[in-house]
């Protein structure tokens, strides 16, 4: 059985977690977007050099953020354990640790976009919880130690009388249990009651968007090939990339976009303004610059929204401007070449994706979509600010981490069929996949088995140059292991290069290949 002196570290741990839980509950109940822990995690992400972040994302996939939060929680747990131990000899030491942690959390919170002093409340709540709970938990331990010392001094009797120990432990466990219980209840209640997301989800579900039509698949776009990527990517299957850990939840009535900077007059656009404007709709394939050759960070959807060029015209863009610095509600930003927003392509402030209001994770209520550019320089989700400016005057999130400024999509192609490692019947084997070169278009796709001649593939018919295109073809294949490669040619006659380049700084190149086995 542990003695009271072994209970100091657990006291620190329980008090520490109680503070995390009350601060989380406060953040949730106040519908502050993030708990202080998450704010710290986002600060870490912001301070992480691009290539390191890139590697982490590739290594951990979509678990990079939960993983970071977990690491932070483990680290602070270790700190809390230590504060308990420290408390035994130096009452002020844990207070110092708490103060440093709170200062770090406060800094992280204040560095978030549009943070005010009210956002510090959860940090303060956590701090008070730490101090109060630690004294509540260590008080019986301290008392027991004082008694022990006094008894030893007076008459040398066995100071660790079993009964006194047991009483101390009972008081401690009672308090620790109570604190832990209340902490967990508050945490759960905060999550259930406070999550503004539920409300926004409800608003979103009830929205009726006039002028937004359901997607009708263009005839001939889909090739009848089993296992090929769906030409239209359903919203639920569409890849997700964002730096925010907790995504912004914005009620449409609270949303507005401010267009300012090098303009003749500042314009503020509301959600209603967008609904009252003429709708533009288009099939546009969006992809991520971090998509490796053959990767899946790409999707094709039917987007509905309002042309950005019209809004910029209302504001009156001044001479000399060459980019628009877009900022999201969560603080992420990107600088987009002005030309891509005004040259007549379907660059839009999108309100709907595949005929439905944007899913929250895809930027509800409004995001930017620009055909032909990678998402990191254009596709701002939860967008709230457009500053018309010059590239030389700004430094956006990914560009300051070494990624290219302009971000035009590079031509690429992928094999979907056969799937990697698949087993097919020898003889006539069907191949298929997708190819893309948004805003330029694909004119041909070829595939080659085991380094043999390039065979022309059949292409699906697409409504514009802004989407990917499905390809298919067949070839005679002997029993055994094989490798199929694919390459595209764009509408300008450029053939996809086999030279392999990393995704950093402006998109991967190289040819996709799949190995498969043909059996007799
Ligand atoms: N607010 C915000 N918008 C963002 C990002 C982000 O991190 N935050 N990531 C961009 C990147 S890198 C890509 S590839 C696209 C992905 O859009 P999706 O998640 O809807 O597929 O969003 C872009 N818009
Ligand atoms: Mo991206």
TrEMBL record:
Membrane-spanning intervals of the chain: 12-32, 67-84, 91-111, 117-137, 172-194
Ranges of residues in domain Oxidoreductase molybdopterin-binding: 246-397
Metal-binding among keywords: no
Alphabetized Pfam families for the sequence: Oxidored_molyb
Keywords: Membrane, Transmembrane, Transmembrane helix
Protein name as catalogued: Molybdopterin-dependent oxidoreductase
Organism: Nocardioides kribbensis
């Amino acid at each position: 059985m542990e003695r009271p002196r072994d209970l100091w570290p657990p006291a620190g741990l329980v008090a520490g977690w109680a503070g995390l839980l009350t601060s989380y509950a406060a953040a949730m109940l106040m519908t502050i977007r993030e708990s202080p822990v998450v704010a710290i995690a986002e600060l870490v992400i912001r301070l992480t050099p691009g290539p390191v972040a890139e590697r982490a994302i590739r290594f951990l996939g979509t678990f990079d953020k939960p993983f970071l939060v977990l690491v932070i929680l483990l680290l602070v747990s270790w700190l809390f354990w230590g504060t308990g131990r420290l408390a035994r000899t130096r009452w002020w030491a844990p207070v110092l640790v708490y103060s440093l942690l709170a200062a770090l959390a406060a800094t992280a919170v204040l560095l978030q976009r549009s943070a005010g002093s009210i956002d510090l409340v959860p940090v303060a709540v956590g701090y008070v919880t730490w101090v109060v709970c630690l004294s509540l938990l260590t008080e019986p331990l301290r008392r027991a130690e004082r008694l022990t010392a006094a008894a030893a001094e007076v008459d040398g009797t066995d100071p660790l009388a079993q009964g006194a120990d047991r009483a101390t432990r009972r008081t401690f466990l009672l308090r620790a249990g109570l604190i832990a219980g209340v902490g967990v209840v508050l945490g759960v209640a905060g999550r259930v009651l406070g999550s503004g997301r539920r409300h926004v989800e409800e608003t979103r579900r009830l929205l009726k968007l006039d002028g937004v039509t359901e997607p009708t698949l263009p005839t001939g776009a889909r090739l009848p090939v089993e296992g090929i990527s769906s030409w239209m990517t359903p919203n639920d299957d569409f890849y997700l990339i964002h730096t925010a850990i907790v995504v912004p939840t914005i009620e449409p009535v609270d949303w507005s976009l401010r267009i300012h900077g090098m303009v003749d007059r500042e314009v503020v656009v509301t959600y209603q303004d967008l609904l009252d404007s003429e709708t533009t709709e288009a099939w546009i394939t969006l992809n991520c610059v971090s998509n490796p050759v053959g990767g899946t960070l790409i999707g094709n959807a039917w987007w509905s929204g309002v042309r950005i060029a019209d809004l910029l015209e209302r504001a009156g863009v001044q001479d000399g401007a060459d980019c628009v610095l877009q900022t999201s509600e969560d603080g992420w930003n990107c600088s987009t070449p002005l030309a891509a927003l005004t040259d007549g392509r379907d660059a839009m402030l999108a309100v709907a994706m595949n005929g439905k209001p944007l899913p929250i994770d895809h930027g509800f209520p409004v995001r930017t979509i620009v055909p032909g550019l990678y998402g990191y320089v254009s596709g701002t989700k939860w967008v709230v600010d457009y500053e018309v400016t010059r590239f030389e005057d700004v430094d956006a999130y990914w560009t300051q981490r070494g990624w290219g400024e302009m971000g035009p999509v590079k031509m690429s192609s992928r094999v979907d069929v056969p799937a990697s490692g698949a087993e097919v019947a020898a003889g006539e084997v069907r191949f298929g996949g997708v190819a893309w070169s948004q805003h330029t278009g694909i004119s041909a796709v070829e595939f080659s088995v085991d380094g043999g001649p390039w065979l022309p593939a059949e292409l699906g018919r697409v409504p514009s140059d802004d989407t990917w295109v499905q390809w298919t073809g067949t070839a005679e294949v002997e029993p055994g292991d094989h490798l199929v490669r694919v390459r595209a040619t764009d509408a300008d006659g450029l053939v996809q290069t086999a030279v392999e380049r990393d995704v950093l700084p402006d998109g991967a190149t190289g040819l996709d290949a799949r190995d498969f086995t043909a059996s007799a």
